[in-house]
Amino acid sequence: MITLIFVFGLLFGGILQYAKLNRFNTISGLALGKDFTVAKAILIAIGVGAILISLEIGLGFASYHTKPLILGGIIFGGIIFGSGMAILGYCPGTLPVSAGEGSVDAVIGIVGGLVGGFVYPVLLPSFQGILGPDLGNFTLKTMFPGTTVLFYVFVLIISGLFIAFSFWIHKKENSKDIKWVVSGIALAVLNAIIVLKYVSDRPIGASTTYPYAIDSVFSFTNNDYFQKIQDPGHWELIFLLGAFFSGLLFSLIRKDFKFILIYDNWKSHKGSSNIKRIIWSFVGGFLIIVGARMAGGCTSGHILSGGMQFALSSFIFAIFVFASLLITGRFFYGRKTTKR
Question: pTM of whole model > 0.90?
Answer without folding.
Answer: yes
